[in-house]
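for ur thesis appendix - DUF4190 domain-containing protein. copy paste whatever u need, i formatted it the way the template wanted (i think)
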Amino acid sequence: MALTAPTRTTPAARRRDADGMAVASFVLGLIGLLLFNAVFGPCAIALGTLAIARQTERRGRALLGLTLGFIDVIVLVALVTLDNTVFWQFG
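the 3d part is after this line
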């Protein structure tokens, strides 16, 4: 059985991962406005925070993902408070 040494990631690879997290945060926050805001909102907040902590080059997108994630959570709280449900109802 061969043992392998743990790989070290370069700063460029970590920044690329952080850029992906920023984009994922934005997309999840945007989708969370319409679907599954209880899941996508907190995920957008977590990914946006990690992307900013890892010094992403797409800081604006990470901040937008954070904002949308918080809006998702606010919408969820409003739906639960006003309608006693976590789902949108049209009509």
